[in-house]
Backbone:
């Protein structure tokens, strides 16, 4: 008897408990970062806040290492189990949009009060006139240097280089050679991978060049301006100012902290590395201004949230995007990541104003340029990087490298 | 005597060469950050700290990941030993049509990199009938994704295991099997009661091969696991690598912590392990 | 006998039994190997981005790879070179280790464990450690070589060195495994054979050359085939340490397949590359098999 009653009670109880669970919508989010502070703020603060405000929606956030995002997303999309919302860099926009796997957000954005506050950063994920991305944080490629090395070399740390000639001459003075080997690079330049493309493209823009023709039908980087840029770029890597390759990190330590380079081009993330692993060196780190040759330009890029077309709860998913990119959430995420805020009104936040280097990154945004959003981008980027490397190693001349790269790029455009 | 000294000297030199990287890992895991990257390198920590271990275990529930990895590796080992020995026995001791063709087709599957069959296998796993909310036609749910059977799926059988067992069974004399037949034992009875007990060492070897393979796998768990509490140890280690930096200390600490049990298994089992391979007819 | 009366297999047609025994393995292989491989073979004749439907292009992918694609040929060359460096070194060192730890000495279990350790350590962590060891300016290796007035060498960033540096690491990671296999082989050689040789006055070297090496030949054959299969597909260490650079000097076919599939979403080309890779390994294994059996006769 007693047993039967217990069973009945339990069943009723279970039924009662499961009813709200059925009414709930679950939004699955893939967040592209596995750094512990980021995971902590998302799990412990941002998600609970959202679920409190929206009791009918449950957020299921999964953290994916950046490097593995691509295979994981591709398999999920191919298998029809993509998350509702996922994070990626803006460079992913065109590929996913062209394959119709992500949802344009224009209708949502049109009714969104916060949209104005994002300003031009909302355009970073634009493809064929439609917006697909709500940015979470940004990074850049600016000159960063050690003031103590500047003083050692008799340079004024308050006057970082503003153009190519000043850059080269500062690099010359800062470099230290032992025999024929650079023990400290005056300036560290990347010659391979995405870093090479980013830094070199920055120089190209500064020289008044551009990657593509206006209609994106042809490569344009192989014109006289491009060749001149690559000549200057590889010319710095003469073994007296820079090596023909980027310095390696030492464990968690950026080369600038290890003292193996005096200046380098890097993003905001390097500041966080300094603060964690070389706090004693951080006072000697300064961020420069975007260089100006023909034009003033610096490479910027935003990572943010995309809405999957496979999502069956698009409105709930958009609510989640809104919450993740509200000022309170962004402030926590950005502080944990060490990136740049995409919202104009956040630029005066105290955590940014306190750090002169972050302020410099923000100031540099006036000269911000973004990589183009075209579906073939990853391939174009790698072709470009591959030929920059060939020029850096002297396998081909800058002119040959760029015309070969242009030929390959034109074949796939 | 001089021969012994020579051997010991060689052993010690080689052990230093082979052991240095891992000794560095262990030392790094107990060094404060300030010692980690000094140049020239500092071997001994200025003070011993467990902060990296604390950090590592705070960052991710490694106990849970460890349990997951152990569970799926062990279960996979059992299935593997059964299936591979059955097939290996048949390939070694029976004459049947298509035997060699089947065997070589099986072996050649090892030569295709996993990357290119990843997507088809993923879709099969997702559409696996009657699992994860799927109906009999494999629609409606997530199939074997995000589950233990899903994690085990691609390792349940490996061609190498069949090859290994076949080699071993060659060494069992046919007379033994025939006399059992004369005594009236069934074919399955012979396999189960006579052959399998003899195969223990070879099965042990297969077990260690399989265990290591499943334990080390990274790409497959990465694509099919979505819940955090289903993660394996290898996925857990990724927590310490972000886009631009590696959390060196915690990575070293966690790696050492998750490797330690495997080391203990080897230390305890190495005698049997070696005997297992020795008797498994690698001599042809 | 009880076995006879209760065993259902008894009633089966005897010719069905072996098929029954291999059934689980065959079913598994069909569903999780043959079908996916078949799909991928079909895809190798298409252009397929995994998100929209594949488009038939005939042999275009193969033609693209085999004709004017210098990256493909470079990776094929790199792959072959990598295998040629890793395999012989691995065989020589693991055999040496096996002979050493096969001695009846105190503490030999400790040495076996030390040599085996790299095998069980995560490839990601191991790659990180080696990147630090190989660091040009502050790495351990250059700091040690510096004591002898050598170097410094730019292990991972010099296109002439990078592949060799990876090979060294790969050998380090893998010799423990083959040591165990050789050790087993050594223990399978009856002791009396050596005793007879010692009485005949053969030196240790002669014994090795005349007895150990020939008797271990099947083990070596097995190690070579397995080694070919695994080194030809190597991916993890390249992905973690060099991403195929510098100057494509460490781009192997395994890495190229990954890049094509998951960076460029070109599953068709990736599949075609994989099948060429398959062809190469297959041909080498058969050649090796012929070579060994010829030598044995």
Residues:
């Amino acid at each position: 008897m007693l047993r039967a009653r217990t069973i009945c009670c339990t069943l009723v109880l279970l039924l009662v408990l499961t009813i709200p669970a059925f009414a709930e919508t679950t939004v699955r989010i893939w967040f592209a970062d596995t750094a512990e502070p980021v995971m902590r703020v998302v799990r412990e603060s941002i998600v609970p806040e959202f679920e409190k405000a929206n009791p009918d929606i449950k957020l299921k956030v999964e953290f994916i290492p950046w490097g593995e995002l691509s295979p994981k997303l591709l398999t999920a999309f191919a298998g029809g189990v993509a998350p509702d919302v996922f994070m990626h860099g803006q460079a992913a926009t065109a590929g996913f949009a062209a394959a119709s796997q992500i949802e344009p957000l224009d209708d949502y954005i049109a009714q969104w009060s916060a949209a104005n506050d994002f300003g031009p950063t909302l355009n970073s994920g634009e493809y064929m006139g439609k917006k697909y991305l709500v940015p979470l944080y940004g990074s850049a490629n600016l000159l960063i240097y050690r003031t103590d090395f500047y003083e050692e070399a008799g340079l004024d740390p308050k006057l970082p280089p503003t153009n190519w000639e000043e850059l080269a001459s500062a690099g010359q003075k800062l470099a230290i050679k032992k025999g024929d080997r650079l023990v400290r690079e005056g300036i560290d330049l990347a010659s391979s991978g995405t870093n090479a493309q980013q830094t070199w493209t920055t120089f190209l823009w500064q020289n008044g060049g551009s990657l593509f023709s206006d209609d994106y039908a042809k490569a344009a980087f192989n014109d006289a301006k491009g060749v001149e840029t690559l000549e200057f770029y590889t010319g710095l890597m003469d073994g007296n100012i820079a090596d023909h390759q980027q310095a390696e990190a030492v464990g968690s330590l950026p080369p600038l902290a290890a003292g193996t380079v005096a200046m380098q081009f890097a993003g905001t993330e390097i500041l966080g590395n300094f603060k964690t692993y070389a706090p004693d060196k951080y006072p000697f780190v300064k961020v420069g201004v975007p260089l100006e040759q023909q034009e003033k330009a610096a490479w910027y890029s935003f990572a943010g949230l995309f809405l999957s077309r496979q999502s069956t709860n698009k409105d709930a998913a958009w609510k989640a995007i809104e919450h993740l990119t509200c000022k309170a959430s962004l402030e926590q995420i950005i502080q944990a990541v060490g990136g740049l805020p995409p919202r104009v009104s956040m630029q005066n936040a105290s955590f940014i104003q306190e750090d002169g280097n972050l302020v410099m990154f923000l100031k540099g945004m006036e000269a911000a340029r973004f990589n183009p959003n075209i579906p073939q981008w990853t391939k174009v980027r790698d072709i470009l990087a591959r030929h920059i490397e060939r020029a850096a190693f002297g396998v081909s001349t800058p002119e040959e490298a760029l015309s070969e790269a242009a030929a390959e790029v034109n074949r796939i455009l | 005597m001089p021969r012994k000294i020579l051997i010991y000297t060689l052993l010690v030199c080689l052990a230093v060469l082979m052991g240095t990287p891992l000794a560095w890992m262990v030392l790094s895991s107990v060094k404060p950050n300030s010692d980690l990257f000094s140049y020239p390198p500092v071997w001994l920590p200025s003070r011993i700290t467990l902060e990296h271990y604390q950090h590592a275990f705070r960052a991710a529930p490694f106990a849970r990941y460890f349990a997951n990895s152990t569970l799926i590796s062990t279960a996979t080992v059992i299935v593997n030993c059964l299936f591979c020995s059955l097939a290996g026995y048949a390939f070694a001791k029976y004459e049947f049509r298509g035997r060699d063709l089947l065997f070589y087709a099986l072996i050649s599957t090892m030569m295709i990199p996993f990357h290119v069959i990843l997507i088809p296998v993923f879709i099969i796993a997702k559409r696996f009938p009657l699992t994860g909310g799927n109906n009999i036609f494999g629609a409606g749910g997530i199939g074997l994704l995000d589950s233990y059977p899903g994690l085990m799926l691609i390792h349940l059988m490996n061609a190498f295991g069949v090859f290994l067992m076949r080699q071993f069974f060659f060494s069992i004399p046919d007379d033994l099997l025939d006399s059992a037949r004369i005594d009236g034992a069934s074919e399955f009875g012979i396999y189960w009661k006579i052959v399998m007990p003899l195969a223990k060492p070879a099965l042990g070897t297969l077990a260690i091969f399989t265990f290591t393979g499943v334990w080390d796998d990274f790409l497959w768990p990465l694509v099919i696991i979505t819940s955090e509490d289903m993660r394996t140890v290898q996925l857990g280690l990724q927590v310490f690598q972000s886009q631009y930096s590696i959390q060196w200390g915690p990575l070293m600490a966690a790696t050492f912590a998750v490797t330690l049990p495997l080391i203990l298994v080897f230390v305890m089992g190495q005698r049997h392990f070696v005997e297992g391979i020795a008797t498994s007819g690698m001599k042809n | 006998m009880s076995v006879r009366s209760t065993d259902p297999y008894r009633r089966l047609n005897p010719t069905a039994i072996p098929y029954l025994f291999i059934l689980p393995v065959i079913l598994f292989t069909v569903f999780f190997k043959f079908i996916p491989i078949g799909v991928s073979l079909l895809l190798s004749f298409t252009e397929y981005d995994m998100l929209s439907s594949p488009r038939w292009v005939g042999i275009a992918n193969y033609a693209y790879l085999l004709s004017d694609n210098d990256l493909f040929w470079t990776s094929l060359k790199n792959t072959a070179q990598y295998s040629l460096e890793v395999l012989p070194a691995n065989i020589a060192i693991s055999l040496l280790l096996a002979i050493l730890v096969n001695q009846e000495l105190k503490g030999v279990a400790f040495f076996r464990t030390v040599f085996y350790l790299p095998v069980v350590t995560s490839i990601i962590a191991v790659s990180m450690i080696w990147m630090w060891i190989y660091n040009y300016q502050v790495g351990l290796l250059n700091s040690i070589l510096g004591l002898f007035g050598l170097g410094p060498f730019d292990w991972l960033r010099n296109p002439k060195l990078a592949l060799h540096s990876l090979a060294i690491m790969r050998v380090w990671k893998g010799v423990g495994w083959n040591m165990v296999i050789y050790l087993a082989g050594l223990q399978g050689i009856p002791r009396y054979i050596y005793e007879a040789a010692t009485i005949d006055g053969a030196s240790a070297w002669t014994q090795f050359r005349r007895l150990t090496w020939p008797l271990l030949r099947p083990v070596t054959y097995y190690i070579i085939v397995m080694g070919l299969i695994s080194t030809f597909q190597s991916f993890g260490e390249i992905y973690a340490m060099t991403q195929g650079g510098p100057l494509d000097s460490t781009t192997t076919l395994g890495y190229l397949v990954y890049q094509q599939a998951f960076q460029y979403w070109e599953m068709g080309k990736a599949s075609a590359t994989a099948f060429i890779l398959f062809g190469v390994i297959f041909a080498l294994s058969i050649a090796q098999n012929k070579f060994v059996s010829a030598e044995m006769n």
